[in-house]
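Table S2 (text version). Query chain:
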Amino acid sequence: MKKFVLCALSAFLILSFVSCGSDPTNADDNPDAPAITTPEDIDNATILEAVESARKLALESGAEDKAADKLEAIDKLFEDLKTKSEDEKQDISKDGKDIADRYLALAGYITAKDAKEKIDGTDMIFIVQSLYDEGCTALAELEEMYNDPEVTGAQLLSKATSASTALNTALLTIYKKIAKDERDAAMASKKNADSVKAGVSMKAKYNEAVSNFKTGDSLFSMQNAAKAYDNYKIAKEIFDELFEEVSAKREAALRAIEEAKKAVNETESFAEEADIQAPITGPVEGIEEEDAVLLEEETYADPSEAEAELPENPDDPVQDAINEALENAAESVSGVLGGEK
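Corresponding structure-token output:
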């Protein structure tokens, strides 16, 4: 979505500048109007490159498979523009901007439809109902506009941007909710794993789960909630496996301890009976004194030190994607125009 906004604004600003700068209509009628001229380096080739960039975005959005008929119609206009551009005296700026807008609108149309399809596949439309309705209305209106032979590229782009922005924002909101729920589940699973000291007995696998969890937090903070969900899910699955495996081993160990205790009790009973029947009255070779120190005292590290500390909530910085896109677009225009405004 952010890429769509950036590319759309870049092409729009470049081509708008070219279009305005090359139109001297009524210039003499208003002598007080500021003179606007087209920089020499913005020629037909530059305009064609900008249109080609817009077409590339449409292709990357899946236009060849998802909107082949619409793409073919715009491509015909583009071929005509290329033919017209062979004469450098021909002004193609207005037509170039219109065609670029059509390609960008097509990219927005496809991203809007993709977002709607993904939203429809969830059971969480109710949390974004207003945005969803707004996007669906704009998308339906855009479909109708494609049937109008008089519609302009600018009109299509405006409506496509509205549809894509609303539906992709709704989709991101849903993804963030799903990712947050999965994170909470992964955190609960981690606490279960910590309760059986999995970080001590199966350290490598435990660290793998922690790494996935932290990667999820990083992706979440970068507004990539869909991929963050995948990492939280992996972390949860590993923590659950650790809890089950270590719990099973602990249960087996406890059973072995109980069996050993039973064997010791039986041995002690036998020894007591032997003392009664044949008591030992003096030292015996091979048997140490009761207070003899046979091994050095062992010290153990605190198992809790093996537990990873993870934040209860992920970072979720508020970012102004439109402002950032405008700034980047302005830089792109400045680069194309050689710093002139």
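Notes on Table S2: Residues 44 and 85 are 6 Å apart (CA to CA). The mean pLDDT is 80.
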